[in-house]
Amino acid sequence: MATRAAQNCESMDDVRVEIDRIDEQMVDLICERFAYVDRAWQLKKSPADATVPWRIQQVIDKVRARAQKNNLPPELVEALWRQMIGWFIQYEEENLRKESKE
Predict the structure, then answer these.
(1) What is the pLDDT of residues 61-83, one digit of tens each?
(2) Which parts of the chain sit beneath pLDDT 50?
(3) Would you give the distance in Å from CA 58 to the centre of its chain?
(4) Nearby residues of 18 by Cβ (< 8 Å), 6 or more positions away
(5) What are the distances in angstroms from CA 14 to CA 3, 6, 10, 11, 20?
(6) Residue 101: its pLDDT value, please?
(7) Alpha-carbon span 15 to 17, nearest angstrom
(8) For a surface tag, which of 51, 65, 67, 102 has the fewest beta carbons within 10 Å of its beta carbon?
(9) CATH number of 10-101
(10) How far apart are CA 15 and CA 6, in angstroms?
(11) Looking at residue 71, what DSSP letter applies?
């Protein structure tokens, strides 16, 4: 399906079609990112390894900079990434705990 620039949308239906298209792409990208998180916990040794503060800050700094470069509120991007990172850390910790019990 061809994409339409936001300023070329002539109705709410046009806007919704584009938002739905973007949402599909975002889910696909999160799925791809999740595959790497899933692999990451397998390479770690213990639940304590799931949280790496310097890496979290590095990721946040990068996405904030990219948001600013693209005129997107960096606070929005940071909030989304912190939520996602928090979920992934919890996922890694749970899997590492299960693995250590086996």
Answers:
(1) 999 999 999 999 999 999 999 99
(2) none
(3) 14
(4) 3, 4, 6, 9
(5) 10, 9, 6, 5, 10
(6) 81
(7) 6
(8) 102
(9) 1.20.59.10
(10) 7
(11) T
